[in-house]
Amino acid sequence: MDLPSFDKSRLPSRHVTEGPSRAPHRSYLYAMGLSAKEIHQPLVGVATCWNEAAPCNISLMRQAQVVKKGVAAADGTPREFCTITVTDGIAMGHQGMKASLVSRDVIADSVELTMRGHCYDALVGMAGCDKSLPGMMMAMCRLNVPSIFIYGGSILPGKFKGREVTVQDLFEAVGQHSVGRMSDEDLDELEQVACPSAGACGAQFTANTMAMVSEAIGLALPYSAGAPAPYEIRDRFGFAAGEKVMELIARNIRPRDIVTLQALENAATVVAATGGSTNAALHLPAIAHECGIAFDLFDVAQIFNRTPYIGDLKPGGRYVAKDLFEAGGIPLLMKTLHEHGYLHGDCLTVTGRTIAENLEKVRWNPDQDVIRPANDPITPTGGVVGLKGSLAPDGAIVKVAGLKNQKFTGPARCFDSEEECFAAVRDRKYQEGDVLVIRYEGPIGGPGMREMLSTTAALYGQGMGDKVALITDGRFSGATRGFCIGHVGPEAAVGGPIGLLRDGDVIDIDATTGRIDVRLSEEDLAERRASWQPRETDYRSSAIWKYAQTVGQARQGAVTHPGGAAETTTYADI
Ligand SMILES: CC(C)(O)[C@@H](O)C(=O)O
Ligand SMILES: [Mg+2]
Questions:
Q1: Domains located in the chain, CATH noted
Q2: How many C-beta atoms lie closer than 10 Å to residue 232's C-beta?
Q3: Predicted TM-score (pTM) of this structure
């Protein structure tokens, strides 16, 4: 690969590799088998979230070897390191989920610290799970050294009784089983066939949503986020990412040149267009924050409201990630959105070219129905909608893709933890028409803003998905369906109105007008607020306690440090 010549003396790695005072430092590099030539080449961090916690991560170390070959082929020296993950599918439905969102920021922090400590010149970050994708992209924006993101790829769908299934079917099967609508034998068979390969949860759930974001925001190479984990073509993307990051070093193209306000709007557009995970409304503000860009839940919601819903993907629709890749991949989706004016085409990407330039050669595929043309959508507005009102002055979010009815009025049934609500659902101790309220599950109150797929899927599995509504200051899985409103802010733990609700209060939700209100006057709310007492959590120490001390509200992405780009030293410039 012919790289433009560039001034190597500006590279951060000079702090580690150049001059007599760095002889000790170099001795460590020699100890790992590096040659003198390799030591003085640009050092590229290859961060992966490899571990044996989940199928999302299991193939990442293998894939990273190809990335390293790409870096080396372009005269860079790859340095591989791993960070942690918490996998929601296994953390779901118990206290373990409190570690999930916390892990996003720990991932960003740990990548930051490895990169800073060793003065790596660039980063290729590989992630495969809900929190590792945004965590890695946050680290890239925070560090602002040339970076490429690469997804580990989606899992393949399983086959059960002749139909394609994902882990969503299992979570919903738990509800079916609890009311006698599924036998022990079928549940046993389903759990053995639902997840047949390595890769992240297979439909437009959180990992695939954030993977789509990685291409739309410009941090990943076109097509790279769509290829399923077991497909060998992933190796080509890995090699290309390794080579390309060397060009980004040479041309000094950095993440904050790429992740602009317009790029964030492009990312929100693909989420809405595909009925993606509501978690994007949390992660996009957090990524923006790392760049010093104000882009909160309301900004995301504005894009959601003006974007046509065109991706017929599960959980709202019919297809899985593999089908989208085979239909033409994420560029196919972006092509039609761009053609009809829904994307900013002039945003720079890691190819060194703009979105519009990347899409030039993409042709529309008429022989597929995974993605509809943007001028012939499934619905004219996005599959995810922002809400606001007396119950959520700081906003809330709901996925409407696949919902029959977008309005709901009913009496509140209040629960102060997910466990309490799950027990009521499991035992069918709720009424049709109820608005189930799960509170003290926000970023501070949980702590950790749990995702509540076990409860929402159980409701769905009981056939009650459209007969009750559920609202929470916690959040939902990308696989949640039903009338489920999350991120209600401010959260109960800081005195938000959701914490003032009592059983029987009447709640009105209207996703068509973007409203969520409680039929209580300002005076009623003020009176209740006066006697409200903050609650203590059981977490008085540990990483989860530490998180609760610094985390902000969901509206701004539940970030754990106040400063954006302007306040953060990028070691690249020291
Ligand atoms: C387990 C899932 C489906 O991956 C969930 O965590 C999500 O958010 O999509
Ligand atoms: Mg999740």
A1: 8-156+197-360 (no CATH), 384-537 (3.50.30.80)
A2: 7
A3: 0.97
